[in-house]
Amino acid sequence: MERDLLVEIGTEEMPASFLEPAIKQIKDFSVDYFEKNYLRYSDLKVWATPRRLVIYVEKLKDFQESQEEEIRGPAAHIAYKDGEWTDVAKKFAEQNKADLKDLIIKDTSKGRYVFLKRVREGKPTIEIIQSFVVDMLKSIRFPKMMKWGNVNFTFGRPIRWILSLYGDELVPISVAGVNSSKYTRPPRFYLRSFIEVSDATKYLDILRENFVIVDHIERKDNILKQIKEIAEANSLILDYDAELLDEVNFLVEYPTALLGHFDERYLKLPDIVLKVTLEKKQRYFPLRNEDGNLVNRFIVIRNGTKEYADIVIEGNERVLKARLADAEYYFNEDIKNPLESYTSKLEGIIFQEKLGTIKDKVERVKKIVYEISRILSLSEDETKILVRCVDLYKADLGTLMVSEYPELHAIMGSIYAKISGEKEPIPTIIGEYIYPRTLDEKIPSHYLASLLGIADRIDSLAGYFFLGLFPTGSEDPIGLRRITGGLLKIFLESDIRLSIKELLEYAWKVYGFGESRDRLYQGFIFIGQRLRNILLDMYPLEVVESVLSVDFDPLWKTKRRIAFIIETKKDPNFNSVVKAFNRLYRILPKELTLKEIRPELFVSNYEKKLYEDFVKIKNDLEKDLEKGDYLNLFKHELLITFANDIEAFFDNVLVMSPNEDEKNNRLSLIWNIKTFLWEFCDWSKLS
């Protein structure tokens, strides 16, 4: 027999950002728990609203699956003698409540042993569900955990009710002082205290009748349908970030879309200011006309029905008017002065308590920019532009607008730079240096903006590394993963030939951190791990490990090594070449005192030919290696011959010769060849 399982955890309103991660955690835990406990079902769903976390399991079997088990007993030679079970065997059977006929003898790696083989009957599912719910709730980790009342339990928000049904049967559960029942609660705007759910299969319909759309996917589709209908009815175009739809979806239980207006005068504000005010501050959906311009209308999602819609719209319009009036004031005040004038305020803005002010950071970044200019041999004009950008790129932090709208940093700097008369590409560079803020965003379109972005991130990383502010588990309060991810993406999607390690070493000196390098080297490891995670989303494991075993820095070479492996794997000779190269890895001692190769000590023609071909290939490809032109290895006319030379050498030459000079000379030859090939990748990681 099978029934549907329903568990609804009712809470006080959860922040929208808590719910998506919670859904995943609950789903992963539940699937794993049911698998380990042999509970079979047809489908498992997890839903969420601001006040509910719901698990719904379809066609869950009434009993655990029966399981065959084997229990190892005593050694066969003491449990079975002369064709009879001994007292030792009888005691083993008795302890496990089994008959002697259930005992068998099996061979194992440790000898012959007696085993008890039997079928363990499954427990009733309802008994297991009780502990499942408690364990599941204890397993969830929210960004912030709360403790309430005198209850010794923490959760994202206080738990207020638990609805738990297996079919029509109540599952008795007690968590955080709350006992389960057959009752749920309506949304706050609906004047009923409790709603009875008689059977799990009726749950969704009962909640829908009482103005709760539990399924967040259905709810999201419902919101999207409503806002599209309003936009189309008014011949307007929706313009919103996907994150806004997700956030609003988890702020409501019963969405109703309403159209509001604001004064046309606010359309004179920069487009981005309007958009951020509507989306980020108010969580409204902006609208554009057919020309792509924002219009003085917006869509708000109400948590409730259309009742009193006019009053709701009026209230939202009033709040938005105050927001826009503030933004208008900030903007008009800011543009009374040139952007450069705000740099004086940077001395009073802390970058990090132990790393100084924003003004201090700007001065450090300027030194890093000069170093980048020297390394890349930038022109005098490029250097002047970049230095001017450094002088201005943090200035908007001193403006009223960015003080109130910190998410507009750099964007407002770019707008104010244009208004202040700064010539291109300075406004563009100032506006783009912050990108990418996530791995989903594009890198700057302007080369110099990428360089400024690199310098800014290098300064931040060096300082944070020195302070040891590394992420722990899921906690990353300083955003080190984000900063590192942005830095790596710039390098991965450009051909900027800089060394991250060398720049960090330079920044370390600029800070004046002294000779201690332990935290810096820890930082190198952190960057390498972050890069590995990014690359694993793009390339096969063996390719990533083969390349990163060599080094991740400089990244322009790492990219070319990856391209080299992917391309050469298509070569029909790839497998035979890799097989030959891998023989070099197996024979070298861990501790090897190297000496120079002495050709006069070669005895065999096999080692002489290997050496000659190696020298030829090495000399031919030396400049290619410097330029990262790794593909030329597989284009070299001697490649196959060279691979065959290696095979022949190992098949016919005694490397570990009793003659010490011969042995050391051969090991030196192998080490030199391996070191040369290591410039391409770690061949031992490739199959």
UniProtKB/TrEMBL annotation:
Entry's Gene Ontology molecular function annotations: ATP binding; glycine-tRNA ligase activity
Listed SUPFAM superfamilies: HD-domain/PDEase-like
Keywords: Aminoacyl-tRNA synthetase, ATP-binding, Cytoplasm, Ligase, Nucleotide-binding, Protein biosynthesis
Top EC class of this enzyme: ligase
Subcellular location: Cytoplasm
Coiled coil segments of this chain: none
InterPro entries given in the database record: Gly-tRNA-synth_bsu, Gly-tRNA-synth_heterodimer
EC number: 6.1.1.14
Catalytic activity: tRNA(Gly) + glycine + ATP = glycyl-tRNA(Gly) + AMP + diphosphate
GO biological process, one term: glycyl-tRNA aminoacylation
The keyword Cytoplasm is assigned to this record: yes
GO cellular component terms, semicolon-separated: cytosol
Oligomeric form and interacting partners: Tetramer of two alpha and two beta subunits.
Assigned protein family: Belongs to the class-II aminoacyl-tRNA synthetase family.
Name this protein carries in UniProt: Glycine--tRNA ligase beta subunit
Lineage, broadest ranks: Bacteria, Pseudomonadati, Dictyoglomota, Dictyoglomia, Dictyoglomales
